[in-house]
Amino acid sequence: MNRLLREGRLCAAALDVFEGEPAVHPDLLGLSNALLSPHLASASEDTRHAMAHLAADNLIATLGHGPRPDSRQRR
After folding, report:
1. Residue 13, beta-bridge partner list
2. Are the C-beta atoms of 5 and 36 separated by less than 8 Å?
3. Closest CA to 29 of 15, 40, 42
4. Residue 75 above 70 pLDDT?
5. What is each CA distance from 51 to 2, 10, 44, 47, 64, in whole angstroms?
6. pTM for the model
7. Residue 34 gets which letter from DSSP?
8. Which of 10, 21, 32, 51 would be 4's cystine partner, CB 3.0–4.6 Å?
9. Distance between CA atoms of residues 72 and 75, nearest Å
């Protein structure tokens, strides 16, 4: 992909997940047709609260004081 972007054979790319995170392949840096952002998909306040509740529910279940939460449920 880096070569395709550099050669103009790929018009543009917007990436927020990188192989070997947190490192970004150096060939991507400085390309004007590559938009790079940190992996922020789970950074909303609601998502962070849901993650914290799921972690607490898992801990409670592991200690034998509650049912195992279904990770597919949404809060």
Report:
1. 34
2. no
3. 15
4. no
5. 34, 36, 11, 6, 20
6. 0.52
7. E
8. 10
9. 10
